[in-house]
Amino acid sequence: MNIPRSSRTSRPQQVSRSGRLARTAAATVALCILGGVGSAYAYWTATGLGSGSAVNGTMQTVTVDALVPGDTLQNSLVPGGTADVILRASNPNPHAVTVYAISGNGAATADAAHSGCTTTGVTFTPPTLTQALTIQANSSVLLTLQNAASMGTSSLSACQGAQFTIPVTLEVRK
Prior knowledge:
This protein has about 170 residues and is of the alpha+beta class. The protein is about 25% helix and about 30% strand.
């Protein structure tokens, strides 16, 4: 069988061109994928130089005082009755703080002029705060806790006219 030379050579050249085209296309796609991955890798692993700093400060204690000069009583405590508790909360911090709770922190005591008042009968009922109270930086607020102090009928007569110290704790946060 004699195949003409022109038809023998043209067919292998066509296969060779399509195979080369397919290999070139595959290589191009592979290079694009590798180039994209390489760029992504370079982007995510790049480092730089610089400096930064942060300071973790310590919050100063918010103080609580009762009846400081200039504060006045709203009502008096009598046996079997209730009265307001007045507090001045002072925030010495350079940032505002928020009061979340008020609680009692010990027994009530009478002032020094009423040393015979050993059984005061005074109790403190801390209020439930329905909303937090903010004390601005470097300032103080006057808090009136309505009917938070009560005096039982077991109080001694020596307690008449006494001022009572009721230790309280404020829960504050920045």
